[in-house]
């Protein structure tokens, strides 16, 4: 790279604000995705966006229950969305602003 006059870089989180598209490629054969959410908004937006992206691209993704959206204002510190089949990764999702870190003031 140092010998090239010009290089092009792309933010891996450009599409979903997280690098899910690069990780979900089937040739990666990923078993576990550690998803860290640092946004002050919806703490599940990236997970649901990744789920939708995976569905559109016909990529394996674990089930994510819509009921977690009820916890938008008071998320836990860690959620595990477990793959049901060998090709589905497990996603450990950790919102930064959660009941543990914010002591109920999120």
From TrEMBL:
One GO-annotated biological process of the protein: glycerophospholipid catabolic process
Keywords: Hydrolase, Lipid degradation, Lipid metabolism
Record-linked SUPFAM superfamilies: FabD/lysophospholipase-like
GO terms of molecular function: calcium ion binding; calcium-dependent phospholipase A2 activity; calcium-dependent phospholipid binding
Segments forming domain PLA2c: 1-106
Gene Ontology cellular-component annotations: cytosol; nuclear envelope; nucleoplasm
PANTHER family per UniProt: CYTOSOLIC PHOSPHOLIPASE A2, CYTOSOLIC PHOSPHOLIPASE A2 GAMMA
Name of the molecule in the record: PLA2c domain-containing protein
Organism encoding this protein: Hucho hucho (huchen)
